[in-house]
Amino acid sequence: MSKLDSLTSIIGILLVLTTTIIALMTNIFIGPFIFLLAVIPIGLLIIRGGFKILKEVSADIIFGFIDTGMMTVFAVIGSIWGPLGAVVGAGVGDALTDAIAGFFEGAISEKLREHGIEEARTPMKASLGKMTGCLIGSAVTVTIAQLLAVI
Fold first, then answer.
1. Domain chopping of the chain, boundaries
2. Which pLDDT tens digit goes with each residue over 84-119?
3. Which of 5, 81, 89, 104 is 20 to 30 Å from the Cα of 113, by its Cα?
């Protein structure tokens, strides 16, 4: 992995982390805000590889969307039993959703190769692609949970 790729991923991670902490401290309606955070890794991907890179990382985006979207559901359900339930729900949910999302990620990767789209798994692409999907997936779940007043 090149130094520029490493730096790009680190910048994305730090921007999302610090922005999320600030948002949580302001007590805003966090679901839609998480969706907006997805602009950070998508933007960094586009800056580094143009719009064509989005096809190359589509399997990673789908993986993150399914994985974290479903894991967040498990965490919300687990929160019924308090903080420990939320942590257990997230942990067990993550294991289950990794398996489910991995199935879809593999299928999408095969389809991309069949259509001549080289997905070239680099650490930066995998990192920022999965981060994008995770943010979108959790944004959907958190927004629905907030609208239903579950959290």
1. 3-147
2. 999 999 999 999 999 999 888 888 888 888 888 776
3. 5
